[in-house]
Amino acid sequence: MDGRWRMLWLAMWVQASATFVTYGVGPLAALWKKEMQLSAFQVGLLVSVIQIGPLLSMLAVGWMLDRYGERWLISGGSLLLGLFMWTCILASDYEMLLFFLLLTGVWYGTAQPGGSKVILQWFPERERGLAMGVRQAGIPIGGALAGMILPWAAEWRGVDMAVFLAGALAVSAGILFGWLYRSPVQETEAQTTARVQKDPKFQLPARLHPVLLAGIVLVSLQMVIVSHGMMFAAEELQIPRLTAGRLFSIALLSGMIGRMVLAWWSDRM
């Protein structure tokens, strides 16, 4: 297999394992709801707070990617994501669980910009749409796996075991990425300094504003499904929780197909 595709599959797996943690909070929230007697608002906040974390870190992560490269930043971020997820096992009340999820979400901020940097490093412009679609497919893959595995793990050994498995997957992916990933070109220190000094400040080009707004709308709908879809199926439709988890997975697997097909189309249209 071409080296760049090996690096792409590696980046996709790190993205999938990271999303297994963050989207896995949706199925876990349905379980925490029963365990802690939570309201629908409190459950929605559990999913929201882990998504706030990346907002606190993504700009800083992008700045560090430009200076230090993606290998150890993605690897370390995935490791810390898993380690902080394990702290949720220690939460004795709802407020502590919220705090631990916020800290966990901060480390998810390395997966998205880091994976995009891998694409920019390894793929020419004419192939980046497809490559980005494949890497982004890690998001619904991770969410779909979480929907299938976490409810089963909770039935098997309780919610703490489900949380442990989510963290373990992220930790193992971080170790794997740090071990196997290589950059295609090694910059000299002088080249890195010159590139960074050329554009020291972050500015969002005006042409990206419509993309940002569209993304906010689409992700908002996506988060509604992640936050409340499984609970709606289980509580309103009286579907068994394991079956509800499978329905959650089917929705996300459809998204995986869409991400790759639409990205392939964008390279040509």
TrEMBL record:
Major facilitator superfamily (MFS) profile domain mapped to chain residues: 1-269
Database matches in InterPro entries: MFS, MFS-Transporter, MFS_dom, MFS_trans_sf
MF term (GO), any: transmembrane transporter activity
Subcellular location as annotated: Cell membrane
Membrane topology label: Multi-pass membrane protein
Pfam family, one: MFS_1
Keyword Membrane: yes
Predominant cellular place of this UniProt entry's protein: membrane
Keywords noted in UniProt: Membrane, Transmembrane, Transmembrane helix, Transport
Keyword Transmembrane helix: yes
Cellular component GO terms held in the UniProt record: plasma membrane
Signal peptide span: none
Transmembrane segments: 12-31, 43-65, 71-90, 97-114, 134-154, 161-181, 211-234, 246-265
Protein name: Major facilitator superfamily (MFS) profile domain-containing protein
